[in-house]
Amino acid sequence: MRALLVEDDGRISRFVAKGLREQAYAVDVASNGEQALYFVAVNTYDVVILDVMIPEPDGFAVCKELRRSGHRMPVIMLTARDAIEDRIEGLDRGADDYLIKPFEFRELLARLRALLRRPAALQPPVFSVGDLLVDTAGQTVSRGGHPISMTTKEYALVEFLARNAGRVVGRAEIAEHVWDEEFDPFSNLIEVYVNRVRRKIDAVGSKPLLHTRRGAGYVLGPESKPELKPGEVRNRDRA
């Protein structure tokens, strides 16, 4: 999952960004409203963590502009202002949640997980693809009851593929959601990680689950049988 953190306090932004990256998020950091709007214009984010008291435009104005321009990613606002009027204003401007500083980082993670389960249809905390289980709360992966050890970035890739199981996702889409703005689009890093993940999840299963669609991308799910052309029959159909 790719997050945009908008926070002008360097100490807080470093702490939150480091914690999120350790939890398999790809994180971009903006320090003011203008930079935040630019990042959203050129990148795709799964969630925005937005401080209210940032240099202009402030967090309220940024949130309002995001919604006005059609962006529908979840937005959680962070602020030291705990007046009920401020919370109402944030929600009325389009925020999905509101967290008062100082806050426990574990609570931020829990709120992010809850928000990310709220696309068009409510998504479960555990994704099941065949006998592969991806637990987003515990950030664990298992297949057929066998736990699979993964690095933070490998897990992030598997979770994104599981959220899009059965659908071909291209290289650009993976880069947008699993890597941050430092990603080099000309590198072969995605292919390297796909191959690592494939070896791990297919090593403990009877059938491959991660497939390459040449020229299109990758799909996580049971391999479907190719459709027969008119007049063709399979060998066993001849018997």
How would you characterize this protein structure?
The chain folds into two domains: 2-116, 3-Layer(aba) Sandwich (Rossmann fold); 126-220, Orthogonal Bundle (Arc Repressor Mutant, subunit A), CATH 1.10.10. Helix content is 39%, strand content 20%. The chain is of the alpha/beta class and 239 residues long.
Number of strands: 11
Number of separate domains: 2
Query: What is the strand arrangement across the widest sheet?
Result: 2-1-3-4-5
Q: How many angstroms separate the termini?
A: 50 Å
Level-1 CATH class name of the largest domain: Alpha Beta
Q: What pattern of helices and strands is seen along the backbone?
A: EHEHEHEHEHEEEEHHHEEH
C-alpha geometry: elongated
Radius of gyration: 21 Å
Largest sheet: 5 strands, parallel
Question: Could you estimate the helical fraction of the residues in percent?
Answer: 25-40%
Second-tier CATH architecture of the largest domain? 3-Layer(aba) Sandwich
